Model the fold of this input.
Amino acid sequence: MLKTFPKGGVHPDDCKLTAKSPIFVATLPDKVYIMLNQSAGAPAVPIVKKGDKVKTGQLIAKGEAFISSNVHSPVTGTIDKIDPILDATGYKHQAIIINVEGEDTWEEGIDITNNLIKEIKATPQEIIEKIKNAGIVGLGGAAFPTHVKLTIPQGKVAEYLLINGAECEPYLTCDHRLMLEKPEEILVGTSIIMKALGVHRAFIGIENNKLDAIELLTKLAKDYNGIEVVTLKKKYPQGAEKQLIKAITGREVPSGKLPIEVGCVVQNVGTAKAIYDAVQKNMPLIERVVTVTGPNVSKPSNFLSRIGIPLKHLIELAGGLPEDTAKLISGGPMMGKTLSNTDIPLTKAMGGILLFPYNFSKRLDPYPCIRCGRCVHACPMGLEPFYLEKLVIKERWEDAEKHWIIDCMECGSCQYICPAKRPLLDYIRLGKNKVSAIIRSRKN
Amino acid sequence: MDKKFIISGSPHIYAKDNVQRIMLDVVIALIPATLGAFYFFGLGAVRVFFVSVVTCLIFEYLIQKFLLKQKPTINDLSAIVTGMLLAFNVPSNLPTWVVIIGSLIAIGIGKMVFGGLGQNLFNPALVARVFLLISFPVYMTSWPKPIASAGQLSDVVTGPTPLGILKESGSISAASQTGELPSYVDMMLGNMGGSMGEVSAILLLIGAIYLLYRKVITLHIPLSYILTVIIFTGIFWLIDPTKYADPLFHLLTGGLILGAFFMATDMVTSPTSYRGQIIFGIGCGVLTALIRLFGAYPEGVSFSILIMNAFVPLIDRISYKHFGEVKA
Done:
């Protein structure tokens, strides 16, 4: 029996159109737009000004708050201006806009060769420091600053490192391709994180719809101490932290706690590769793999793209915006966020750009809930989405809190499966916001 | 910004199944037993069946349109399911006007007063059946003899149900001596007296297998229900096999299979969690066995399911386990 998480989950169609498309290096446009809020937490503070010349990989904004991250120039050029622009949140936020000027001139100290460096010279403290300097954030989508996540709180001990290669979202293939094309880098990156955390065992969890990646990494992992590849049965949301931990180790993270509570740290495969680059090559995080896809996209592709490239440039490279596009989604179809326009630049958090035609985007009219219970059986957190929906409609916030509304991770399984096509997650999100506000006000 | 996109919350894809499809599956699953009822009880069954289905649709449409002033939703097929199940739960010689009253009670009192589809606490078809049983006990307990009645519209040969014979006789040995009990094979096929849809175990099970295959129902409720009845009646049978009937008799007679697979599993009126469904099934089983063995009525499936329907909100609140509910 293949491992998976026991409770809930759904099986949407794979639609991995780009699983066989090699990663293609995206060309540079004339201008790039580097958001200062690349990670969760406080935005970075710019240390350059209008008219400054910058090299590729040069630090241009510092993450000064505890939860924040550094931002580097992904191109060589001149700072055009620092201005608020519309971003993925739907609001305007500060961005550094750079005019791209010719070929890359790299910041000193960065190793841009393809030589694989297996030997890890850095000490654990140096590793965390280098990760922090390189501005690395979780590339799975949450964009939490990695150096913060790797700093184990007092009194806790990390036992296992879990590398997330589940990529359970339909359509997305950026992690899959990375595992096929940069397997050694991911494995060395994994060893680096193990050293930083002081753990002796790491598991790379991959779903069984990526057998080629499983085979390749299993073969190569034999040369690395303590790294094991675990084949997981395909089920959404396997890539959610708590579900991945349950699937691989059988441990259940208590409600409201972090994975470290059960001795686990989870990192995405893309993050492991970025950590390799940062520690072995002094390469800051200035590019990532992003899947540009959709049912009507003429050339769905996986791009290695510099951060800050406007999405319309990437969509052009993928064959242009299909005529009937009605939804532009950052991320996968289950958890992705809709974006308002294609001028929004790529950020570190974006693993997929999904273009949905109108017939995919229109919501069907909701029917009354017939209590079929499919949402209950689909919820990986063991919640009752149909009941939470009713509580939110009735504004019974205290009851919603008692029924663990805060534990909802918004995976969307309930709304996906609902035969009455009810907007369950819309209501639950609203309830979560209200209940979180109530909890915060209680603390003050 | 040349093009405007739709902004909405995730998820952006949906599973194919919808409410109509689920209802259609139930209708399809009821077809074998419907044809069986037509075969065993003939024209009378055809009459009751179509009167029930059509009047349920009409009442739902009229109540929604003129009383509640909302958009009629008869195209969700739920009224057809209610109509079919109501027909299944009455004798095939029931006068047409009683069937129409049944439909009005099922749709009006069973469903619409609660707010329509999905809101009702009790199974609408069973509400109507119990209403008719209490209001028109004579009509509701004169059971046409199968096959013999097939050619007749209303003037039919009637006789008691196996459970009725058992209750009347007081003990299984006395019931056997009447010579009126059908064989187990006849019980299995449906060649016995009873409500028109409940008699054929085999045809009902064919429909049940379809519903299981389509994942419209799971085995949690039917299995826990039936096993409870088997264990409960089995214990008494072992204590005194001359007085109490064996579990197979209880399984094949009355409305147990119809109730367990098609009535107790009604999504709207059963618990949502698997644990809750097992609790619900056991409750139905205990009540059914109690009523059959010690109650005033020979049959207890309808009452048991209705009583357990009332406990569903309570069962829902105590029966699910939440992820991360471990000691921190």
Remarks:
- Chain A touches chain B through 70 residues (CB under 8 Å).
- DSSP finds 14 helices and 17 strands in chain A.
- Chain A has a mean pLDDT of 94.
- Residues 107 and 152 of chain A are 31 Å apart (CA to CA).
